[in-house]
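Hey, quick one: can you model this chain's 3D structure?
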Amino acid sequence: QVQLVESGGGLVQPGGSLRLSCAASGSIFSIYAMGWYRQAPGKQRELVAAITSGASTNYVDSVKGRFTISRDNAKNTVYLQMNSLKPEDTAVYYCNVHPPYRSYWGQGTQVTVSS
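Sure thing. Here's the predicted structure for all 115 residues.
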């Protein structure tokens, strides 16, 4: 069983930065591809960024060049560095394996971009 705990969200002005962290339990973390997902009010949850066990990455077009996903297998942690934030980035951000497994969804962390 894998447990995932997200942290690092908050309120930030447009153009600001945040770094999200996702701590995973379980000794087999390193073999999973991981993803950061987000869900804005009234919208479906979407994949924002993913990273394979070999550290290959991909991003949704709307965040390319602004967000960076990374992982530290020694710490069982995956990160999302978010720069040049926009109001449309406002959402609850979740991490999960990629593709996502339903029972692994955590509480997420709220990111609000507003002046």
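One thing worth noting: The mean pLDDT is 94.
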